[in-house]
Design brief:
Blueprint lengths: L6 E2 L7 E2 L2 H17 L11 H43 L6 E3 L5 E4 L1 H7 L3 H4 L13 H14 L18
Antiparallel strand pairs: 1-2, 3-4
Length: 168
């Protein structure tokens, strides 16, 4: 990949990140614009080493400002995604939950809590297995064993399976 090419961050889609050399080049460019506006600056009067050090510090300051702009942009993108997640997950009319490998609720949307007649806070203390009818517990156990052995997440619902939950 070219050092001057911007890349998209996989953690925050839509947010451009710049490689270090591109960031340095942009900072140098901004420094030249700033230095041109300060023709009467004291830096020409400084010894050569001090002038280089001052130049490096000013360029580094501009690099930090550019990085700060990128971080703020990434933060805005994260807030947008968090809002989108809330709309898709928490406000969904379908019950969504995330279970641990031991079957404890890690996360659940409001519809799930309403379905089981519990608050979301109380739901995370429950083991999902306790909400399954006794007659269906073995089938659930086999399903979990299959998931644990395959390692693949389960996202498909079998429409032929009738409700296996008992309301508390």
């Amino acid at each position: 990949m070219d050092d001057h090419q911007a890349t998209r961050s996989p953690q925050s889609p839509g947010v451009e990140t710049q490689p270090l050399q591109a960031l340095r080049d942009e900072a140098e460019s901004r420094w030249r614009v700033c230095a041109a506006g300060m023709a009467n600056s004291a830096s020409p009067l400084l010894p050569h080493d001090t002038g280089l050090l001052l130049h490096e510090l000013q360029v580094h300051q501009i690099e930090l400002e550019l990085q700060n702009e990128q971080l703020r942009s990434a933060q805005r993108a994260i807030e947008i995604e968090r809002s989108r997640y809330f709309d898709l997950y928490d406000l969904a009319p379908v019950a969504y939950c995330t279970l641990s490998d031991k079957g404890f609720f890690l996360q659940a949307n409001q519809t799930t809590a309403t379905l089981f007649g519990l608050s979301r806070e109380a739901l995370v203390e429950w083991v999902f297995f306790r909400l399954i009818l006794k007659a269906d517990q073995y089938a659930w156990y086999q399903h979990c064993q299959q998931l644990n052995s395959s390692g693949a997440p389960q996202t498909k619902v079998d429409p032929s399976v009738k409700t296996i939950f008992q309301l508390i």
